[in-house]
Structure formats: C-alpha cells, structure tokens
Design a protein that fits this description.
The chain is α/β, with parallel strands linked by helices. The chain is built from 13 helices and 22 strands. A hairpin with a 2-residue loop joins strand 20 and strand 21. The radius of gyration is 27 Å and the shape is globular.
Length: about 500
C-alpha cells in the first residue's frame, strides 16, 4: 500500500479493528481497561458538562466523573479519571452510613443507661443520679427532656446528691473547634462526644411582635447560669443578613446578648450556634432542664464514672435507619462522626477498649476490603467528610453504591439521600430533572461533589459520581447539574 493511501484507508478500518479486538479480549481484561482512569472508550465529556466546566474555569484534570448502570451489568456510560483518589467532602458520609447499615443493621439503637445510686424516699433521691453516654447522635433537647421526665416517673423530684455524667465510652483527643476553618460557633464544627447533648448548640427562635415593636427570643435548651436576652427591638431593614443586623455577642459563656435589632420583615427565624464553652455545655443543659421540670438539686452536675450495677432504665435512640436519613439529607457532620465512632464501640466494655477514631478506621478498612473492594481503599479520617485528608476515588464510590444497590439495605440507603429539587441539601438544586435523582452532596473549600443514584427516563437506574478538586470547585455546580440532567435523559 502506498503511504499516501493510509490516511484514506485507515479511518474506515478503525471500527472493524475495534470490533475484532473486543471479540478477542478476555472479559476481565476489558473490565480492567474500562475501569482505568481516563475517559471511557470512544467517549468525551458531554458537551453541556464540558461547556459548564469551561465557564467555571475548572480543567478536566481536576474532575472525576462516573455514570454506570446501578447493577453493574453494562460498560459505564461515562468514566473519566475514576481511579484517582480525591477529596470527596461530605460524600464520604455514604461510606460511613452504608457501613453502619451493613455492620449494625437498620434497626440498631443507641442506649443511654440511667443509674440511681442511693435510696428514694418521699420524692427525694438520697444519693446520685448517673447518665452514661454511649454515643447517641440524637440526644437533642426534647429527647433529653423525655429522659429526665422518665427519671421523675421513678418518683424522683429532688436529688440530694449530684447528677453525674459519664462520657467515657469514647476516647478522643481534645480538639479546637476553630482549627478547621476558623468558625468555632458553627454547629458543624462541634466535636463528637459519648454524651452528645443537643450537638452542644443553642437554638434561638426569633418571633417578631409588630404591636409591641419587639422580637421575642426563645432559647433551647435553657442553660443554667447563662443570662439570656429574650427581647430585642424591631427594625424596618432588609432581612437578607439579619444575623449580622442582630450584632450578637457570644464571647461570654455566662451571657448571650444582642447589640442590634431584628428586621420585622423576616418573620420568624431560627438560628443555631455552637456554645462558646463546649466543656461546660452538658452540665449547664442538664441542670437547666432539670430545674425547668421543677426538679431540685442539692449537689451539682459533674463528670464521673457510672456504677457497675444494673441501670434502672436505658433511654433508646431512634433506629439507625432514621438517624442516617438526617445525616445524609442534611449533611450533619457531628452525627456522622458519632456513627463512625460507634463502629468501634465495644459490645463488652469490661473486656474491650473504648471507641476510638483509630479503631473505627480499622473497622472500616476491614469492612471495605471484605465487602466492597480489595483495592481502592479510601482514607476515611473522621467518617464525616469534614476533613482535608479524606480521600476516595470515583471508582471506589461507584463500587460502594453498586454493592448497596444490590443489597437488601438499598431502600434504607437510597431513602436517606437528598432528592433533587425536593428536599435536604438538594432542595435548591438547579438540575432541571426534578425528583429524578437521589444524590449526596459534598462541599468544602476547593471541593464540590455529588454521588448517588439517578433514575433515567428510559427506566434504567444509574450510579452517578462527580468529584471536583480545584480552587474554582464551587463554580462547578452548574456542570454537576448538567451531568445529572444528561444522566437522566438517556433515551
């Protein structure tokens, strides 16, 4: 053949050549080739996704994308840099929550034992009351109220001794709430705790009263020894940045006050902040609520160790399936860390060590290797994704989601994920395919991510994973929305 004929003859021969190659390649080799980082065979990124990435000034090399049949029966529709380990932000919660479902079961509940040490006569406990934390991620103010009401149901209205709080089930290094991003009062920076009460946060409800020209402020929970400003003046200002307009002062652990006004145009608003002195939060919350219930306390609230005797009752949490719904729908970091640590919480405390971060990481490593993949081992860090060090590949997430889809636990996991344009962190999604995807979101500085399930127009279901690690990652959200729309429109 003359050299000049090669350009004219070779292109028509390429499809035939590829067909021949595909026939002779062993299936396993083909699977390996398709799973390699890089765009899948013959594919380019969807035009609308490429255009959106270009507008965001995010290069293709900063993105990993995977769209594949949920049951793993077909070659991926899209596979770009799927083998590259990247920071997934809160998408890492998929690993923690599915592992917990698989290892603990969807009906798993946390138990908070309550011990009575001493005799009860005429409504008075002549001794101490003990509460032992076991990692319950949902021991919020209203559930703490129910726990203390059960104590009063035992005929105890006065405690002559102390209320003792046992936090020993978790062994954790001290942490600085400001260390991650300099925002110590953001509830998402709250540290995990074996006895986590109301996320160590105060919820403030502002209700304007136009007639009185005031806004009423309600605080939950009531904290003993803290002066609270329960009224402030109204203003006619815009509601866009009402928190700044309040001029709040949270610097004094003994007092919360506001130097500004509340815009009447806001209507009722709810704002949660982490308490400025987290070490004293539990004691203040328990004492304050006990007094609100009409209880008397002769001693004080302090930390200590629960007795070895049997508890008088155990206060149960909601089941795990309900807890992970709140974790994934609303990306609750501290609840995810509570679940993560629970994975190494011993079933026999007398003979096994306390729950530790290292122990939970080891549990996850073994589980991943046995249940998900012998390869692509993620860097789990704290299990919540609120981390600069966490890493996982799009391929690894794809394997996880396909494994979950084929398991009996699929309904629980999928129901926990935000629905595009409907609820959770996807409520304001700009994807045009309303309600057609269940996707966990993830966002940090320089990170944007999506992962979950897409329901195609053809009736097929796909796993979708999108990871962006770049300085302009937040600007890439339209590209991720375009990817969701492209995955749905598979006709």
């Amino acid at each position: 053949m003359k050299p000049g004929l090669i350009p004219r003859v070779l292109p028509p021969l390429l499809p035939y050549m590829w067909r021949r190659i595909l026939r002779v390649l062993p299936p396993l080799a083909l699977a390996c080739l398709c799973s390699l980082g890089g765009t899948a065979w013959g594919q380019t990124l969807p035009a609308e996704v490429s255009a959106a990435l270009a507008r965001a000034k995010v290069p293709r090399e900063a993105v990993a994308l995977l769209v594949v049949d949920a049951e793993g029966k077909q070659t991926p529709r899209l596979s770009h840099r799927v083998g590259t380990a990247m920071n997934p932000a809160s998408v890492m919660k998929l690993v923690t929550t599915y592992a917990a479902l698989d290892l603990l079961g969807p009906a798993y509940t946390w138990r908070t034992p309550v011990y009575v040490e001493g005799a009860v006569r005429d409504g008075t406990l002549y001794g101490n009351l003990h509460l032992k934390g076991q990692g319950d991620p949902k021991l919020v103010a209203e559930r703490l109220w129910l726990l203390l009401r059960r104590v009063q149901g035992l005929g105890i209205h006065t405690i002559a001794g102390d209320i003792v709080l046992d936090r020993s089930a978790f062994e954790l290094a001290r942490s600085d709430a400001a260390s991650f991003d300099g925002e110590p009062l953001r509830p998402y920076n709250t540290a995990a705790d074996a006895l986590l009460l109301n996320f160590k946060s105060i919820t403030m409800t502002f209700t304007p009263d136009a007639t009185a020209g005031l806004a009423q402020v309600q605080f939950e929970p009531h904290l003993a020894g803290v002066q609270l400003q329960t009224q402030l003046a109204l203003s006619s200002g815009d509601c866009a940045d009402y928190r700044a307009a309040l001029l709040p002062d949270f610097s004094d652990a003994n007092r919360i006050r506001f130097g500004g006004k509340f815009p009447a145009s806001c209507g009722e608003k709810v704002w949660s902040v982490a308490y400025t002195d987290p070490d004293s939060f539990n004691g203040r919350a328990v004492q304050g609520l006990w007094h609100q219930l009409g209880g008397q306390l002769g001693g004080r609230v302090r930390e200590g160790t629960a007795p070895a005797s049997a508890p008088v009752f155990e206060f149960a949490s909601p089941p795990l399936a309900e807890v992970i719904r709140e974790i994934n729908k609303f990306s609750n970091n501290v609840m995810a860390q509570q679940v993560f640590l629970t994975l190494s919480l011993p079933l026999a405390p007398a003979s096994l060590p306390r729950a530790t971060a290292d122990g939970s990481r080891e549990v996850l490593r073994r589980w991943w290797s046995a249940r998900i993949s012998a390869n692509d081992l993620p860097v789990f860090d704290n299990g919540s994704g609120l981390s600069r060090d966490g890493r996982i590949s799009a391929q690894g997430l794809g394997h996880l989601l396909q494994t979950a889809y084929r398991s009996p636990l699929m309904p629980e996991l999928m129901a926990s994920l935000p629905i595009t344009g409907v609820d959770g962190t996807q409520k304001r999604s700009q994807a045009s395919t309303l309600g057609r995807a269940h996707l966990k979101t993830g966002s940090l500085k320089d990170v944007n991510a999506l992962a979950g399930y897409v329901h195609g127009a053809s009736g097929k279901r796909y796993v979708l994973v999108a990871l962006v690690n770049h300085a302009n990652a937040n600007a890439a959200r339209p590209a991720l929305n375009a990817l969701v729309d492209w995955a749905v429109n598979d006709n």
